[in-house]
Design a protein that fits this description.
heterodimer; A: mainly alpha; 11 helices; globular; B: alpha/beta; Rossmann fold; Helicase, Ruva Protein, domain 3; 2 domains; 6-stranded mixed beta sheet; 3-stranded antiparallel beta sheet; 39% helix
Amino acid sequence: MRKVSKLMNIFSIGFELAKKDFKLRNEGSYLGVLWYLLDPLLLFLILIFLRGFIIGGDSNDYPIYLLSGLIIFNFFRHSTSTSINSITGNANLIKSMKIESEIFIISRVIQSIFSHFFEIILLCIFMLYFGYSLNWLIFYPLIFLVLVIFIMGLSFLLSTLSVFIKDLNNLWLVLTRLLWFSTPIFYYVDELSFIYLLNIFNPIFYFISIFRNLILDHMVPRLITVLIISNTSLVILIIGLLIFSKYKNKFPELLS
Amino acid sequence: MKSISIKNLGKRFRRSFRGDEGILYRLFSIFKTKEKFEVLRNISFDLDSGETVGVIGRNGSGKSTLLKTIAGIYLFDEGSMVINGSVDYLSGFGHGLQKRLTMRENIYLMGLLRGLCKERIEELFEEIVDFSGLRKFLDSKVYQLSTGMLNRLNFSIIIHCLINKNSEILLIDEAFSSGVDLKFKEKFVLKMEELIASGSSVVFVSHNLRLIDRYCKRVIWLEDGRVIMDGNSEEVIAKYKGSNNDGR
């Protein structure tokens, strides 16, 4: 019982922190949340424009195919790259009082969820514009929940590592950029091509393709895919939490 | 009843560990010898509940490390430590205030981080604002306040959190020395005395020997991470002053 109430407490403080941070990031600029959308929106428009040159395909589904991939990957990149600094960035607090450092990681992830919400709205607008039905989006929260579990685990892992390795965030930016190009976000892949085989080990690819199948083809994912992806996410979360809790008591000494 | 009981406590830091190094350094440093540096050695003392003890010593003698170890922020390497009751650690202020939030938001944020629930903060809110004497600035951003005003705000938040939590053990690390005006300092000291008198056990680190003498009957003198003397405050302070005059 006490563990549950402690967990609730951590989440509620994390939520409050996220709200404050979100507000801070948006105040003082009239564009506010539009800044969140600018990056995916710009990329979307550029890639739509370039489509004829690089892909040549003329599938009518391409805009939504592209945008759904963009926003899921964007959520992944945004949340991991902000939470990677969540422990090192709050070194002052962690060193000066007894505090559950999980709070900081959770708050960064929640903050990314807030901004993802706006990306989903953007997707809805484009889906309506291109004449898709929004009904199938009802299942999205389920996919998203698993994605959040996966990202939570990864964030715990990365933020712990970054206490030891200062430039991990730079490395992570490069790695996610590589992953962005190797994931079929703006191009199509044929099954059994080299890139497809490569993506069998890419968790983000599963999330993106489940989501695309759902909204474009109204296809519910196969059970085996669901099992693979939810188990992988849980395992990542457990590994992340184990490593985090092994080192979290040493953070005050290790941080500079 | 004992509120703190410490036996042969030892604490080491890794001297060669550098927290701010990149991945290449990390890879090469696997081959480096790991040099240990003893901060605390063989510390033993008991603290009765309700007792106030002062800790004195030169810079780098391990005073803050000792408090942080008792507070559970640092882990210890040797010995044993038994603590009965909840512990609160209070160090130099200025941590945690978010410069770009308003004073109102900062009060909520700090309260939450220090373990108050939202409803409790709402109840204490007026009192905190009145105590700080900064009602005029309630909705201005904290970066617009002067350093002294920031200290006042921080003091007010922390002291009310402490009074509300009413922890059995208080660890105070140089909390009295900071740039606030005399009037506020008096107010703060009064609140602090109230807190100490409420029956908490207090471990009190300061370089201000007059303050130590005023609040503590017993003083522990640390040097190089070891207890040099533990006893009646007047005797220990006299010896400590004497050692400083030796020119060591």
